[in-house]
Amino acid sequence: MTEARLKIGLLTDNYPHTGGFGGIGSYTRSVGEELARRGHDVHIFTLSDTTELRRSTINGTTVWECPGWSKRRQMPFMNAAEFTLKYKADAVYLFRYTIMVAVRKAAQGGKFDVIESPEFGALGDLVLPGGYTRRFAVRLHGPANKWDVLRKAERALTLGADVVTTPTVASREQCEELWGILIPNAIVIGNPAKPPPPMPEHQPTTQSALFFGRLEPRKGVDVLAEAVGKVRLRHPNFHMIFSGKNVPWPDGRMGSQVIRDIADSTGGTGGYTVCEPPLSDQGLLETARRGTLCIFPSRLETFGLSFLEGMMWGVPTVVTDIPPFRELAEDGVHSLFARNEDADDLAAKICQVLDDPALAQRLGRNAQPHSMQWSVTALAPKLIDAWMHQ
User: Fold this and answer.
1) Which terminus of the chain is less hemmed in, N or C, by CB atoms within 10 Å?
2) What is the model's pLDDT at position 149?
3) Order of strands, sheet of 41-48, starting from the edge strand that comes earlier in the sequence
4) Domain, as residue range, for 148
5) Please, which pLDDT band fits residue 369 given cuts at 50, 70 and 90?
6) How far, in Å, CA of 278 to CA of 179, rounded?
7) pLDDT: is 145 or 289 the higher one?
8) Partners of 342 in the beta sheet?
């Protein structure tokens, strides 16, 4: 049965094709391109470094690049918020108006059937009064904002939506705890990933591991950097590869420098590489398949798309024992779980995979078919059903 053609708008603050990386940008790309492939009219509204509104067609989707915050766009979020308060300059909210202009232009050719916005920054609250869409959806992506003004706006946006979806129960619970409300009607639909082409069973050729994701505190890359030297005490040839968008940390250092400082001071010198620029999608796949395992030591997540992709590639993984990852895999069956923020336990779990090729093979073999329930082809119809019928 063919789906009726819908006009769909997806709001995001970053997008891989326009300089963004990870998070809601990767979700938006996967969903948008799959829905376009299925015949829907998909419009993606994203921030960019452009100084004027630009429109283009990318893989079947109409992408609207909206001017961002100029140089303040590069600040950590709280720094940008403090800048706004101190100088009375709109460093935080300016981008929302540029997205609103783009949505208005796109709606001139016909109202949207549904527009979906992430909750953070209350991106969608300027779209709603315009009458641009028949249905409005909020995607809980978070983690929910701890800055009071935005927290209230995000909560109000979510409560006013026609439908709310969440990638995990943990994501919903994070928002509920911070907002002091219950969101019982939030529909759990994971963040979809594009399945890789058919591949033979994973056979590593190097004693290496790959991390990919933003080089930020939330991803636990500092803990992983500390674990490198500990692993090399048992496996001197072990090499850790970090690939991801380089972002500033609260102390002013960039994530890449934090990794280098910690690894070099804890015995990891010569045992790691920070890829600058980050590897391409194909480069990540090839690097992961050459190596022994992928490692994702996140302190906090709402889902775990990188973890999911590693499992889809049939590569064994070591991850932290946090609630969202528990919703994606079973410890000892699909992955090994290490205690959160514990470099010793993380190193021990990495060594366990390196020491036991049969375990590594079993983890990868179990994880690959298990992960396909989150493929974009499986989840796109569930999103359509939630947006239009819930």
Assistant:
1) N
2) 72
3) 54-58, 61-67, 41-48, 7-11, 112-118, 133-139, 163-166, 187-188
4) 7-192+375-389
5) very high
6) 35
7) 289
8) none
Encode 339-373: b = buried (16+ Cβ within 10 Å), e = exposed. Answer: ebebbebbbbbbbebbeeeeebbebbebbbebbee
Provide the domain count of the chain: 2
User: What would the two tokens of residue 370 be?
Assistant: 């298990």
pLDDT attached to residue 90: 46
Tell me the CATH number at 275: 3.40.50.2000
Six-digit token pair at 201?
């069973």
State how beta strands 61-67 and 41-48 pair: parallel
pLDDT bracket for residue 76 (50, 70, 90): low
The number of beta carbons lying within 10 Å of the beta carbon of residue 14 is 20
Q: What is the pLDDT of residues 151-168, one digit of tens each?
A: 888 899 999 999 999 999
SS3 209: strand
Distance CA 83, CA 268 (A): 37
